[in-house]
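Cross-check.
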Amino acid sequence: MLFRSDIVNPFFRSAEQHVALTALGVGVIAPPYALTGVDLPVLPAEVQSVFDDPTIHAVLDVGGEEAGASALGRYRPHIDRTGCKLYYVVNVFRPFSEDADQIIRQMERIAHRARLQPAGLINNSNLGPWTKPEQVLEGQRILQEVALRTGVPVVAVAGEEKVLQALEGLGVPFIPLNLMLKPEWME
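Predicted model, tokenized:
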């Protein structure tokens, strides 16, 4: 079973799609106050289960901020024991991720707070439903510079399948995404 945990994000929360994700065989671990308007960087106790059961594949989305990274740092002994990896997912069109210097500073802060070093970078550069292949390529260019300067490799490109189909030859696997969370302001 795959679990998806989302702890810090007021706009795109897995808990909003709990029924749809469960129907797809994805378990959702969310704080008890999810969807209440309270947004605290706290991981619920159920997170421990992803480290105790080797048959579980999990994605822990702790947000791109130091608060979520601090909450994740609590699990470092379990992460080390199980061989889990930290991937730094970057959208170069988000504030504080617009160039290599900003990305490196933020990545270092998060790594310090999580007490984990990133195993790889994932290019998730997008402008939501308005994303064009050129924007993904711009993100790839910036992340290649980050990789060169830090030694942390770009390991994948994530995006909507229709956008990824227009890209070839990047030398990394694609992670096709099916966007399920679309706030009213994005419609």
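The longest strand covers residues 154-160. The CA atoms of residues 1 and 56 lie 5 Å apart. Passed to J.P. for a second look.
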